[in-house]
Amino acid sequence: MNADSKCGLTVDSEYVELAVEVFSMLADATRIRIILALRDEELSVNHLADIVDKTPASVSQHLAKLRLARIVATRQEGTRIFYRLANEHARQLVADAIFQAEHALDDRNPAHHRRSSSRTAEVRDISGA
Asked: Could you give the CA distance from residue 123 to residue 68 in angstroms, rounded to a whole number?
């Protein structure tokens, strides 16, 4: 059996509808920015709010949705809650979406191809792998 069929990468996969929900959850610029901010470290709501230039209340609402979708996880330290990416896949989805966007603007020479390192090294750098 091939590896794609083992992990649900078939047209009749039971995970297709769930994948659509993941894309729907990521179809928001603030949530993409939150994921980019969390790609290397865990952060508090206030720190994330400063980074993405939104109010803590707004960021908290976005984080609640991302948490329900199991895209982010939390750790409590006293009264503060820190957020981190739940796994490497959200990081990779966002990196690939950014790379695809770069291709949409300049298909012959997108920014991630112009960097001095190879694409594999670039993905490793962005994804933290």
From this structure: 27
